[in-house]
Amino acid sequence: xxxxxxxxxxxxxxxxxxxxxxxxxxxxxxxxxxxxxxxxxxxxxxxxxxxxxxxxxxxxxxxxxxxxxxxxxxxxxxxxxxxxxxxxxxxxxxxxxxxxxxxxxxxxxxxxxxxxxxxxxxxxxxxxxxxxxxxxxxxxxxxxxxxxxxxxxxxxxxxxxxxxxxxxxxxxxxxxxxxxxxxxxxxxxxxxxxxxxxxxxxxxxxxxxxxxxxxxxxxxxxxxxxxxxxxxxxxxxxxxxxxxxxxxxxxxxxxxxxxxxxxxxxxxxxxxxxxxxxxxxxxxxxxxxxxxxxxxxxxxxxxxxxxxxxxxxxxxxxxxxxxxxxxxxxxxxxxxxxxxxxxxxxxxxxxxxxxxxxxxxxxxxxxxxxxxxxxxxxxxxxxxxxxxxxxxxxxxxxxxxxxxxxxxxxxxxxxxxxxxxxxxxxxxxxxxxxxxxxxxxxxxxxxxxxxxxxxxxxxxxxxxxxxxxxxxxxxxxxxxxxxxxxxxxxxxxxxxxxxxxxxxxxxxxxxxxxxxxxxxxxxxxxxxxxxxxxxxxxxxxxxxxxxxxxxxxxxxxxxxxxxxxxxxxxxxxxxxxxxxxxxxxxxxxxxxxxxxxxxxxxxxxxxxxxxxxxxxxxxxx
Amino acid sequence: xxxxxxxxxxxxxxxxxxxxxxxxxxxxxxxxxxxxxxxxxxxxxxxxxxxxxxxxxxxxxxxxxxxxxxxxxxxxxxxxxxxxxxxxxxxxxxxxxxxxxxxxxxxxxxxxxxxxxxxxxxxxxxxxxxxxxxxxxxxxxxxxxxxxxxxxxxxxxxxxxxxxxxxxxxxxxxxxxxxxxxxxxxxxxxxxxxxxxxxxxxxxxxxxxxxxxxxxxxxxxxxxxxxxxxxxxxxxxxxxxxxxxxxxxxxxxxxxxxxxxxxxxxxxxxxxxxxxxxxxxxxxxxxxxxxxxxxxxxxxxxxxxxxxxxxxxxxxxxxxxxxxxxxxxxxxxxxxxxxxxxxxxxxxxxxxxxxxxxxxxxxxxxxxxxxxxxxxxxxxxxxxxxxxxxxxxxxxxxxxxxxxxxxxxxxxxxxxxxxxxxxxxxxxxxxxxxxxxxxxxxxxxxxxxxxxxxxxxxxxxxxxxxxxxxxxxxxxxxxxxxxxxxxxxxxxxxxxxxxxxxxxxxxxxxxxxxxxxxxxxxxxxxxxxxxxxxxxxxxxxxxxxxxxxxxxxxxxxxxxxxxxxxxxxxxxxxxxxxxxxxxxxxxxxxxxxxxxxxxxxxxxxxxxxxxxxxxxxxxxx
Lengths: 621, 621
What we know:
Chains A, B: It comes from Yeosuana aromativorans. Chains A, B: InterPro entries: Beta-barrel_GLAA-B_I, Beta-barrel_GLAA-B_II, PbH1, Pectin_lyas_fold, Pectin_lyase_fold/virulence. 2 copies of one chain form a homodimer. The first copy, chain A, is mostly beta strands. Chain A has 4 domains: 2-135 and 248-324, no CATH class; 139-239; 336-417, Beta Barrel (Thrombin, subunit H); 477-599, no CATH class. In chain A, a hairpin with a 7-residue loop joins strand 4 and strand 5. The interface between A and B is medium-sized, with 25 and 24 residues.
């Protein structure tokens, strides 16, 4: 008995005071006795009682609820999501050596709250946590009837969604939010993957609202559909609200930090990206899973990317992670191109963003090296070191450089920050059942993608770069993709999707000017695919494709059947060898404007000679 | 010639450098040679080249344009308006001794930009400026046809409004913004005042959207009207968008400053309040006019209050100002009640706001004295001095007091800040053609309202105070209203509106507990009114009504004809003498639960005896 009293005394003491006298204070949370109890203030107080402390917060396994009323709040600019006033539960700002260990606890977040904020913090470890929400940030339902002629379908709305209909428009809602319908996708209820050729069912909400009529019993009839086909009976229709308004509640907001470790975390849902890290050095994800909860009848986990890294540095590593059922990529590692709006004087420029969801991004700071590129051919025209930067508004920055900048007054210039580029290692991960790509890679530092499983709806690994649409920089210079399995990607039907898709956006007339990417190795991968296209590569200097096994499947009817498995354009220093193709016909290799070729003409299942058969889908103009 | 060269040299020098060596640097702006030139950066640069400088910025008479692209931006919480990320053209933060003199120049603002920001600044003078916008923030049009049976009306939309119709909903827009329809009012095109009994035409947009059909030639047919009557042909229908989204672009944002002078300024339009000042000490308005531009075909100037002062101190004075055609009050001078959400310990409480548009208000700081009141009877239950305040989110503050607070754990408590209350003087001003009241007064410091002309749609001078609806504090203790003219107010028909309306919101059963307001003198005023009610007073200790002349007009049919001109309830220390009533019948004085009366029974046009005829409209429960 005495032992227990002593233990309780210690617990009470560590919960109410937090001193920095010892290296690491421990705070313990036992499971709430009342399941509805709000732990928001308790967590806030522990973290704020002593902002200098280095501590571990341990939760006993169990369920903890967090509500918005007492949550810490501030205005944040979160690139590639939507900026705004946001509430946060675990808010780490300017902290170091903090560990938050859930010991397998489940955190249920209610309403518009972002679970984790990590800003200007160092050595932060968060682990052993399950993240759930009271109400999902997307609407889901089963199509129980449809009428192709009338262009209507009846949806049995999931019980997890609250909704109302006003003036023929359906609004779905949660604890403290409500949103109209917008971006949508049709999923297959059995495979929990996007329906084959799901693009046919996509409603163009920019043109018309879906008109909603309540039929009772949680069934709503939608008419006014602007899509090629009505969704099939039995499929799942999901809607996350209008673009520009549906990326508010990320799972982890990470900004200007260093050494972040996320271990053994299940993000079952988020109302934007599950993890978005900006300007952060070295991030390690181990068993960081963005997945549906076992037994859930839902089909969407994160309503945007599982992970996303913008102008980070150091090393980003992912090991043994599962990324499933997101409405966007598993990861996207890139920098940002800003547009040069005005040359103010010989060493000063004014910049703006090319995409509205980049506005407010912390583009550069004093001492950073920036690279100027020509927006037409994406090639460098100079560099400069930042002397000062002034964000006058979220879309108008002035940068003064240490030295005179090149005279590019007559050129259309974009600028990227090459001080902030990370290396990347993705190992033993799997990506499936998500809309969009598996990985998007745009970093000049070394990249290793090894022993993963990819089965996303769009491309497997996309290496793009553009200064005219997404404005995501920059070129790669050292990418190795080996020992991975790719299975039946590209089922969405939106446009051809390659297993490895290297497609910087360069106008046809400028492709002769040079090469954007370099040194990409794709080897020892296993590809099972129903559509023929495997690799599309544009503007690469140094591309090795070797010892890959490609097996044609009959899983789905082909969608883009007129493409060569390997389609290379404006590339140089190419080596293709040891690949195997198993399919109905021999595979072709298409080359346009390519040089310095080493192509093994005896590859199993391949035609002996290369062909010239331009891929009409990829940016021909 | 040499003189000119010298002059130009001087001009260039003062425009490009701003040093604090002399007491006041002068910056000159000559009129733009190209009328479309954007002066935003020029103004920004002059103010930011040396943030320590004390300077005068002079404009040559002419037209100057300001655009949003290069405007300074930040997230602001503006009480009684809508919080958000806003752009500002003249941004004064932490400045002192600055004069901005337009010399009669016209500033045309394009899009979502707030003309003036004055924060943490002292001795600021802004004068001789006309403020216009490219596109109005409300939609206006003439009703060219209507159909009472079908509940439709056809509106010829003003040429100044851009609009589109999508899915039967009309959206109007400006340079960089777009909004759907919402709060609306019908104006008379000839008088440019709200239509008589305009409440009949008010569309309840919360229930239904107005369905819009384009008939061509800028004429739109609206159906689905949820109002008692369709707007009359020839009237002006105005709509400013939905509540909670239509108070973004104030004219002047003034915050935590001292000694502000605004002279000879015409605010022809603003997309929220024309002037909103919070926590500011001493403000002087002279010829600060919120009016329509001469010759304009429009009916709305500011889309909310002309001026509004929250928890200011020192003296607010207005002289020779015109406030016309606003969609809300000419002024509202008040404090803020926060609700006690939780008693955390003997000296700490958690607070929240009662009205969503107060959220984020800078309620108190260390050293301020706060008064606790009982929300049922509005009476004080104690005071406390702030030791610290922590805004955890915009609707959850924690305040620690220097001493123990009274035990009010069982009471429903609100808290007001009595350190920040201003005195007020309004002289020689006129208010007309606006929706809502002329003046709203809630301050305990001396108030003098003298020699003004009031002809607003609702009450003339309202002295309210409540801790359950608007949450605007506090009681008055010294108000003199004399020598003013009031003319045919209360035409809107929403509810009875008194010339002097003292109506703190206190439940009937709690009115016996005490008196909320005190010491109000209403004397030597001239009232011309078509409806009988002149003064309604509840819960006043010390009310003098003397030597006023009331003339019944036939301008409109009576709306609330069953009320006594003087209707006093739960008041004490009352003196009524020397008043004159000229009308069809003798005027009555109604008294309920009133004490300590001195009533002259020989007042001209009044019944000899008082009556007891409860006003059923004012908060009887």
